[in-house]
Please model this.
Amino acid sequence: MYTAYIDLDDTLLDDKKRISQFTCDSLSEFQRRGNNIVFATARSARLHGLQDCLKKATPYYILHNGGEIYSHGKLIKRYYFSREQTMLIGAYLSHNGIKAAVITEREYYANYDAPAIWGNIENFILTDFSDTGLCAPKFTLMLENDEQIEKAAVLNAHARIEITDRNSTAIISPLSASKGMAVRYMQEKMFPGSKSIYIGNDNNDLSGFKACDTKVAVANASHELLTAADIVIGDNNHDGVARFLYKF
Model:
């Protein structure tokens, strides 16, 4: 039996954030053969924009880059920043002009006009994070230059920072949270004895690679992930994950 941990954006989803019917069928067939699928994503439980077939494809989710683990709609484990940590990190980012957002199941907090960039956002709250009383699952940053990358890196002593999308974005998570830590927890507590596969595309998937038996990168993955992979498969726009699982 295998458990496949699959990243969503730019791995399973194509550039238009969609999947084909072939991919849906391949996910079902992989599980019909007695295997498990876990979606491992930086997205929140909103899962905004996902096709219905994806929301129904598996009951197992790693959300917020490892900050939450869900099974059959139930929150199993959570790793969040404390209110004080959220306030201090958010205030530091805001003071240094770094665009930062915290997305929860109900609200979208940001220190910049996110709707002007991303379009209409339900329950959007403009904030510098100094008075939200929020326990953040993670911060998502938009990086505009190398100076901002260096300033964000100052937080390394207090948080886990993963630079993604070719240095244009970053994810700041609690030190206790990562996709890899979530994978290890699920392998031990939920899928003992199963062999693990991790399929991803970006640097925040590296911790998942380290936690799994087989490391798989899509062809459009970052250089770091391609270098670390055991197997390189087709890209996200040509059903790469589905074709790999179908033949596996």
User: Anything to note?
Assistant: The chain has two domains: 2-77+178-247, 83-173. The first strand starts at residue 2 and ends at 6. Residues 2-77+178-247 form a domain with the Rossmann fold fold (CATH 3.40.50.1000).
